[in-house]
Design goal:
This protein has two domains: about 230 residues, P-loop containing nucleotide triphosphate hydrolases (Rossmann fold); about 90 residues, Alpha-Beta Plaits, CATH 3.30.70.260. Helices cover about 35% and strands about 30% of the residues. It has a six-stranded mixed sheet with strand order 6-7-8-3-9-10, sandwiched between helices. β4 and β5 form a beta hairpin. α3 packs across α4, α3 runs parallel beside α5 and α5 packs parallel to α6. The chain binds adenosine-5'-diphosphate and magnesium ion (MG). The site of adenosine-5'-diphosphate has 12 residues, from β2 and α1. The site of magnesium ion has 3 residues, from α1. InterPro entries: AAA+_ATPase (IPR003593), ABC_transporter-like_ATP-bd (IPR003439), ABC_transporter-like_CS (IPR017871), ACT-like_dom_sf (IPR045865), MetN_ABC (IPR041701), MetN_ABC_transporter-like (IPR050086), NIL_domain (IPR018449), P-loop_NTPase (IPR027417). GO terms for molecular function: ATP binding.
Length: about 350
């Protein structure tokens, strides 16, 4: 378990210091995968680097399995770090060492002998699918393979916690999903607690149990992943969700669309819906109750860990007063709706 308590970090000297983290409280439960999401510069890397003291917090506490790392002297901190593995966006492998030697590196520092090392490394090569690449140098590996080496190296000391700083941001979508799958497997098989940071909702959606949203060094929202994707509770959360769901209306629609409702009578509406208000019965009910013709112009449905999340763009045709009532009904239902424009 990781607990961050009132964590703050300033870079630079007093008068022109940058506040990268401001009184952050965050708990990562044992065995969970927790994602911290935010835009570039939000403080994500600072936060994760404070967990293993790569950055010293300016104030606050960092507890890993109940031990406050901010209070440890250098030897005690070195020992505590064996419990914390870390992987990075750009892998940070040693180019002059083979795959095997890269994974061996932390074990050498811990004073392992050759045999003990081999005993540790062989199953890690297997776990990460690198057994046949153990004598290769990083320059002969793909990005995904490099990240697998980094994961094996991070696991060599048998940590309880794995920190991932944008670990898939340099990878293509297919490689990203295979690395995320590996992380999920490690989480489940080894019971490893994972804290990852990302700017991508897709990563959060794929493997996280919980998510924390950070902005300007402050924690703005924490939630389980299902509720976060179906009903984020902050404006920033909704912006991330919209970005994730974004589908551009087809050009043929955009050409017809006017921002002014006075010359074109029929609204085009974007609706975000979830488990509680699955769209299709809703649309047919509205059509029936208010005698409208509703055409669905575009739709997207996502399954978020068993929760349904969807976005729909639809055109409402009918009597103006009836359309107004239908829109009022939608807003009563707490659905997120937006009029994109009008058509005739
Ligand atoms: N070593 C540093 N020295 C000075 N400012 C830094 C340093 N590292 C990060 N910052 C600043 O702290 C803020 C948060 O940065 P960072 O934690 O890297 O954010 P993120 O990982 O979310 O992009 C940014 O304003 C950044 O410019
Ligand atoms: Mg960063």
């Amino acid at each position: 378990m990781i607990q961050l308590e009132q964590l703050s970090k300033f870079y630079g000297s007093d008068h022109d210091a940058i506040c990268a983290l401001n009184n952050v409280d965050l708990t990562v439960p044992k065995g969970s995968i927790t994602g911290v999401i935010g835009v570039s510069g939000a403080g994500k890397s600072t936060l994760i680097r404070c967990v293993n003291m790569l950055e010293r917090p300016s104030s606050g506490r960092v507890l890993v399995d109940g031990q406050d790392l901010t209070q440890l002297d250098a030897p005690a901190l070195r020992k505590a770090r064996h419990d914390i593995g870390m992987i990075f966006q750009h892998f940070n492998l040693l180019d002059s060492r083979t795959v095997y030697q890269n994974i061996a590196f932390p074990l050498e520092l811990m004073g392992f002998d050759k045999n003990a090392m081999k005993e540790r490394i062989t199953p890690l090569l297997e776990l990460t699918g690198l057994s046949d690449k153990k004598d290769r140098y990083p320059s002969a590996l793909s990005g995904g393979q490099k990240q697998r080496v980094a994961i094996a190296r991070a696991l060599a000391s048998r940590p309880k916690v794995l920190l991932c700083d944008e670990a898939t941001s340099a990878l293509d979508p297919q490689t990203t999903s295979s690395i995320l799958e590996l992380l999920r497997e490690i989480n489940q098989e080894l019971g490893l607690t994972i804290l990852l940071i990302t700017h991508e909702m897709e990563v959060v959606k794929s493997i996280c149990d919980s998510v924390a949203l950070i902005s300007g060094g402050e924690l703005v929202e924490t939630s389980k992943v299902g509720p976060f994707f179906t009903a984020p509770s902050t404006k920033l959360g909704r912006e991330f969700l919209e970005e994730f769901l974004r589908i551009d209306p087809p050009k043929s629609l955009l050409d017809r669309l006017s921002s002014d409702g006075s010359d074109k009578p029929y609204p085009v509406i974007r609706i975000i819906f979830n488990d509680e208000n699955v769209a299709s019965p809703l649309i047919s009910q509205l059509a029936r109750s208010f005698e409208l013709d509703i055409s669905i112009l575009q739709a997207k449905i996502e399954d978020i860990q068993g929760h349904t999340l969807g976005l729909m763009i639809a055109e409402f045709r009918g009597n103006a007063a009836h359309i107004e009532k239908a829109l009022a009904r939608l807003s009563d239902m707490q659905l997120s709706t937006e009029v994109l424009g009008y058509v005739d």
